Structures are given as structure tokens and as C-alpha cells.
Amino acid sequence: MPHPRSLRVPTLLAALLAAVLLVSGCGGGGDSEKKAEKSPQQVMEQAKKKFDDASSVHINLSTTSTPSEGNGVLAATGDLTPAPAFEGDVKVVINGLTATVPITSVDGKVYAKLPLQTKYTVIDPVEYGAPDPSAFADPDTGMSSLLTQLDDLQKQGESRSGDQILTTYTGTLPGKAVKEIIPSAAADQTYKTSVGVDEKGYARTVKITGTFFAGNDDVTYNLKLSDYDAGVKISAPSA
User: Which of 19, 39, 86, 203 sits in a 20 to 30 Å window from 107, CA-based?
Assistant: First the structure.
């Protein structure tokens, strides 16, 4: 007759094995849930929300191209708040002449210090082929709206930008959406676009390529977003 101890050993081993398998099974499920990736659309939605919720964002929009004819915006650098308000510099070309103009847009008015002037005056930016830069903060038609209007959105991979690791997403934007930011865009065209998102889900770079100037080949605009939630306050300039 088998000794009682010899019966207990296999039984204990089986129980331990079952417990290990059970724990492993539970742990594996948890890990897979933690590692579940957001879809590209979810990433863009999160990046848009972070932009819209920020107390301020520093923007740098630029292109190295210039139109062979007509007017256009070549750059816009400054701080944007959801007031909406903007304070910074806008570089434009008008009839072949290029000028960088200090701009403050707040409370529905656009103030500019035009060339050869020492004081700010209220202007209509449309006359200069430029948008009201405070409109960049509009969640429906501004910069963040581009993130959720991308068609054929795909994740491409990771790259380093300075001290940041960015994940790149590519797609195309309708010209109508781009035209809200860059007035020289063609409403009936589509624009190749790539977006770089950092590890915390903030959009950091946007590159838009397509037709912007009559008589020119494709042009690329680069948008850099930084200093989220710096708490910048913008007020109308003194007379």
C-alpha cells in the first residue's frame, strides 16, 4: 500500500502548477490590455483635445518658398490662447514685397505695427492676404481641427526631434480646411500631411505639402507647436 506522503507530493505539485498557470493567465491579460495601442484616429483626437484645453501654445508656421506672383503668408510665430488671442509676428509677401509685421489679435480686433509706423493700428488682415491669427485657436476651424480632418490616416513610425521622440502619422487634408489657416491654399485640392506626436500625446509638428502659390510647384509649410500651458496672457497693445 502506497505511503500517504507519496500521495500528497504529486497532489501538491499539481495544485502549485495550476496556481502558476492561473496567475500567468491573469497577468498576461492585464499586460495585453496595458499594451493596447490607440488607433491613429484616437491619437489625433487626444492631440486635438490637448491643444484645445491648453492655456496657451507657442506656434511657429513657416515655409522656405515664396510666390512668383500674388500675395501670401510666409510665416507666423507667436503665442496663441483660447480667448481667442494671438501675439507675435506674421511674415507676408504683398505684390513681391516681403514684410514681417508685429501682430496682436484680441477681443475681435487685429492690431498691427505696419512698416514705417511706430504704433499699432487696427487692420483687416484679409487686405494683406493673411488670416486673423487668433482664429488659429478656433476648435472647429483652427489648427487643432486639422488633426481630426485627416483622410487615409496611418501610423508611420518613430523619429527623434531634438530631445523628443515623435511618432509620425500621415494622411491628406482637404484644401478647404487648410485654407482656414493658409488663405492661399486651394479649396478644391488635397494636401499631403504628416503629424508628429510626442510620448505624452501632444502634437508637436505638422507638415503640409501641396499647391499654395499660383505658378509654383508644390510648397511645404512646417508648423511647430511648443510650450503648451505656459499660461501666456495677451492684451491689446497700448495706443
Answer: 203
